[in-house]
Design brief:
Length: about 450
């Protein structure tokens, strides 16, 4: 009603709990701009059958591929971001769960030993004790006297914090600010990141190595030196204690990552086990590349000869994807910490509709051309009677032009109200699921 549009309320899935919208491996790593698995399941299960092959040429964190696997449908995902491909791949790999548990336990023991040997442990323990006492005394509830009171108490605890920093000789800023890892992490966290990454590099099972790299990435995202309110959208590094708008008390930056690595490793293991019980034996293939010119047959052949034979015989039955929105997200930059740590080649210039390109008329026309090129290229590997489903917030009316350039005919469009959002801005908006066939 607020949106003032004729919408299919059933497609909002607003009745679902957050744990349902992020079931099993879908929450292995944060990712901006992904759709919920129930939306994929609704359309894929209604329009494709077990044994079909579907494609997501903007696969992002792999939601379409995971849901296709649950349904016994073969799936191919393409993404220009190497890190996005890693996230997608680790969701779909088959793991030796006993081996994985042992690797996690071994790394956690090493982290505990590392932190005990450091004075960071005793520093954090005293800091947390003083912080807890202070917050209990001055921020017991939210009935305190406004902005001036908060600033006064923030300043008062800052002196306690600085005394502890001096007492334990804690280094805050790193010597360099050249990279993301240099700028956005307290010095002790940065050293610990390198320590844990070196442990992961030594793991022999490549599947475990990849999964634990994603766990580390998820961990360091949460350990950035920033205010809790700005975790989703960074503003400036925060190396001191501060009054936290989210928690209504004085909070602090992190000086170690062991606690969060343990939390995320345990959560990841649980989610992998849950998905393992649901997985089918269908093929899944993640390809790193540009969907505008990628030879899908040849790239799948490099990954799996069996899947290649099936693909050549059947071809791709359809597409379910959500192209990037115009000027909305810089997909490489949202995981800048991971690119710095793992050394993936950044291909920001290959992103379609990236935020850095803006929302000018030129940017919109480029977007029309580039999304059209993706669809035209993908059609070369598809059956003649394909079905294409594109999820988009088409407030600029670009998709009729895209369809025309790509030789597609609109069958139907579904207006979906988006009501459950995790960002700070939770205002409702709508997106459209376009169903296209060959014109």
């Amino acid at each position: 009603m607020k949106l003032g549009i004729e919408a299919n309320c059933k497609l909002s899935f607003d009745y679902l709990r957050e744990k349902d919208r992020t079931k099993h491996v879908h929450k292995l790593h944060p990712y901006k701009g992904k759709f919920i698995p129930q939306l994929v399941e609704y359309f894929v299960s209604s329009n494709f059958k077990k044994g079909d092959i579907i494609l997501d040429p903007f696969c992002g964190s792999g939601t379409t591929l995971v849901q296709a696997n649950e349904l016994g449908i073969h799936a191919i995902g393409i993404d220009v971001s190497g890190f996005n491909c890693l996230i997608s791949e680790v969701k779909l790999l088959d793991y030796d769960l006993d081996s994985l548990e042992k690797e996690i336990e071994s790394i956690q023991k090493a982290i505990v030993a590392y932190e005990v040997d450091s004075n960071i442990t005793v520093f954090e323990k005293e800091l947390d004790t003083r912080l807890k006492e202070f917050n209990r005394k001055y921020f017991r509830d939210e009935k305190f006297d406004g902005e001036n009171y908060r600033r006064e108490k923030e300043k008062e605890f800052l002196q306690i914090y600085e005394d502890l920093i001096n007492k334990y000789s804690i280094e805050l800023k790193q010597k360099s600010e050249k990279s993301f890892l240099d700028r956005w992490y307290v010095a002790s966290v940065r050293r610990e990141i390198d320590f844990v990454f070196e442990l992961i590099r030594k793991i022999k099972d490549i599947r475990n190595k990849k999964l634990l790299a994603v766990v580390l990435s998820r961990t360091i995202r949460s350990c950035r030196a920033t205010k809790h309110l700005h975790l989703a959208t960074l503003r400036k590094p925060q190396y001191t204690t501060y009054y936290c708008q989210r928690h209504k008390r004085i909070c602090r930056p992190l000086f170690s990552l062991g606690k969060w690595f343990g939390v995320y490793a345990k959560d990841t293991l649980r989610r992998v086990k849950e998905f393992n019980r649901l997985k089918s034996n269908s093929f899944s293939c993640v390809l790193a590349g540009d969907s505008r010119d990628l030879n899908i047959f040849e790239e799948v052949k490099k990954k799996s000869s069996d899947f290649y034979k099936l693909l050549k015989k059947q071809k791709i039955r359809g597409i379910f994807t959500s192209p990037p929105y115009v000027g909305q997200i810089d997909y490489h930059q949202q995981h800048a910490y991971a690119y710095d740590l793992f050394g993936f080649e950044r291909k920001d210039d290959k992103e379609i509709g990236s935020k850095s390109l803006g929302k000018s008329e030129k940017a919109k026309w480029n977007y029309i051309d580039e999304v059209s090129e993706v669809l035209i290229n993908c059609r070369e590997f598809m059956v003649d009677d394909f079905d294409i489903f594109l999820v988009a917030n088409d407030k600029y009316g670009l998709y009729p032009k895209i369809a025309k350039k790509a030789g597609l005919r609109l069958v139907r469009q579904f207006v979906r109200p988006v009501l459950n959002r995790v960002e700070r801005n939770k205002s409702a908006y709508s997106e459209i699921v376009f169903h296209y066939v060959k014109s």
